[in-house]
Amino acid sequence: MHDLRDRLIAVALEWECAFGNAPAITSTLSEFDAATLLGLTPEEYEECMRGATAVQKGYDFKYQGKRYQVKGNRPSGKPGSLVTWVPKAMNYDWDCLVWILYDSKYKIEEAWLWDVADYRNEFDVIKRLSPTHYRKGLQLR
């Protein structure tokens, strides 16, 4: 399964080299990577995603009875691509949130975990979040 991840990245980077922009794989990749960081094997992740849809409301996957929301960022490495804004959860229909920051080659630079209550207390009134905000959580790895 990690071979499949590597092939997806290779194709995305080849596409970016040819056409200037990488295909939008960060969300899908970050969900898989979050699951494996939390301890799921690729086979367990495959099983828990069976029947899931991309428009499932509130969370991306379930693991050990908890619903996980995942956010990810990846700078392209081009001038001006430094990550200064991170996606904010639009609802609280999840138990834990994982934020992953990649480098330009989709290597995990850092990953942070948030409990929904702590996240809501910390960020509910903040409109624009930065990596500094997410770094107040529990670091994964």
Structure description:
- There is one protein chain.
- The protein is of the alpha+beta class.
- The chain has one domain.
- It contains five helices and five strands; from the N terminus they run αααββββααβ.
- Strands 1-2-3-4-5 form a five-stranded mixed β-sheet.
- The mean pLDDT is 94.
Bin the helical content: 25-40%
Element-level helix/strand string: HHHEEEEHHE
Give the strand order of the largest sheet, numbering strands 1, 2, ... along the chain: 1-2-3-4-5
Work out the oligomeric state of the chains in this entry.
single chain
**Strand residues, percent:** 15-25%
Ends distance: 20 Å
The count of DSSP E runs of length 2 or more, i.e. the number of strands, is 5
The tally of domains stands at 1
Which overall shape is indicated by the principal axes computed on the Cα atoms?
Answer: globular
Low-confidence parts: none
Q: How many alpha or pi helices?
A: 5
- Biggest sheet character: 5 strands, mixed
Structural class: alpha+beta
Gyration radius, rounded = 15 Å
Mean pLDDT: 94
List keywords for this structure.
alpha+beta, five-stranded mixed beta sheet, 36% helix, 141 residues
Summarize the structure.
The protein is of the alpha+beta class and 141 residues long. The protein has helices at 2-19, 26-38, 42-49, 116-123, 131-134, and strands spanning 61-63, 66-73, 96-102, 108-115, 138-139.
